[in-house]
UniProtKB/TrEMBL annotation:
<protein>
    <submittedName>
        <fullName>Uncharacterized protein</fullName>
    </submittedName>
</protein>
Amino acid sequence: MSACRPWRWPFKTKESVMVNSIKEGDNVKVRVENVDGTQILVKMAKQ
């Protein structure tokens, strides 16, 4: 299986600390919620 190419994050985050702990190549599971019409990343966990 080939690695995915890097991509820009299309969501705002509730806490920037969530994104700072992720490195290239990490597998993550995320939860995104619609808050007043804006997609917000509210939970992220490494797999």
